[in-house]
Each structure stands twice: as structure tokens, then as C-alpha cells.
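**Sequence with structure:**
===
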Amino acid sequence: MDFPLPRQYFYKEIYQPEEQIDLAKAALYIAQEEYPDLDPDEYLSALDTMADEVKERLPAQRYPLRVIQTINQYLYDDLGFSGNKDDYYDPRNSFLNDVIERRTGIPITLSLVYLEIAKRVDFPMVGIGMPGHFIIRPDFQDAGIYVDAFNRGETLFEQDCQERLSQLYQQRVELKPSFLEPVSNRRFLARMLMNLKLIYLNRHQLEQALAVVDRILLLFPGAPMELRDRGLLYYQIGELTLASQDLETYLVRVPNAEDAGAIRKLLEQIGNG
């Protein structure tokens, strides 16, 4: 497989049964492409240490709200973790090693730190991919409570999620049941990568964006929109043969896409070049 070594590790991690994918390891392999000297074990050990310190503080009666309160006090009060509201689109917010070192990040990476600690103290939680925001909740039936890791572990109930959604979109948005469904491990990683992809595109860092799209396609091979975007990125960096392959595959998969006409014109332009 002609991939950089960190991507080979990422590929190996994600091509396991869904429940066996280690999110922290996979996230560190994502970061390792940015930081080739990164040692994933160092940061996995840091998560182990944090979890051990939380264990020592847990009350004898492990009621969910008490466990959440204990994790919150440790992460936000003692260690000083916080949501990076001042520089939200800094790519370092999407790399788990940076989040652990700098103690700041975006909702999904702070949620990952929280999930990993909760898992290690035998309080499993799951990610909830609301539109525009990422939260978590305890992984048991009808939990009814949610945690906003970006906002100091604030405890939310369903009505709070509705209000948070409306605040984000600055208008009334109906909270559909699907918005509060747990995300799979692959979907979790894809959402992390989508954030990174948008950051790189906005910064016109096309090679980095291309590398991110490649990894999304490892998670979801043949995803039409990612094939299209990879084709367009190849076109922008002058890899016209590869661009044509992806764009033609995109049209085969979604021949009636809204942008199909524009993509066909681009393919003609490439062919005439």
C-alpha cells in the first residue's frame, strides 16, 4: 500500500469491526501525518494518567451526574481545558496531541478527550453529532442527559439541546430525534477529518486538504462528494489524469447531481487540454 506510514496505521485501525476501532489511536495517526515524530503511546499514556487521577476522585456511589461532575472538575478546573473560542479554526484544534498539550480544542476533539477518560473509568459514553455542534452522553438506555465538552462539560437535557441548536443557527430549528443519535466510530473520525478539510480549504492548503480527503475515502470508500472534491483538488494542483478519474466516477455514481453539468464541462476542458 503506497501510503505514508501514519496513514497505513490509520488504515489498519479503521479496518476492524466498528466496536474495536480505538478512536484515540486513530486520531493520533491523523495527527502523525502533520507531526511525523509524534509518538502515539506518549499521548495514550497521558490519557491513562488523567483517567487514573479521575478514578481516585470518584465517589463511592457512581451516579452518572456525580461521575460527570468529577470529570468536569478535573478537566476544566484542575487541568484548565477549555473550548478554543478565540481561534476556533486553528488546525491544531483538530489534532489530539495538540489538544492534550495545549488543553484547548473544538467540540469534537474535546469530546474525544472526555470520551477516552470516561471509557477508562468504566463510564462509557458516546458521541452525538448534532448539526453544527458535537456533544456526548452516557451510553445507557434513556440516559436523557448530555454533556457539552466544549463548554466546560455543561450538562444538557433535550430542551437545552433544542435551544443550543437554535442559538447556533440564529433561528428556530426543530430538534429531530436523529440529531441525538450516537455516531459510529467511523462517522466520528470522518467528522474530525471534515473539520480539518474545511480548515485547509479555507487556508488554500490544497495538498493538506487532499490528504484529508484521502483518509475520509478510506473510511467511506466511494463516497460521491469526497470523490468529487478529490477530483477538484487534483485538478487544482495539476494532476489532470487523477482528476478525470475521480470526476468521471462521481458522475457515474450521481449522474443527476446538481453540479453534473459543470463537472462535465470541466472534464471536457481537461480532455481538450
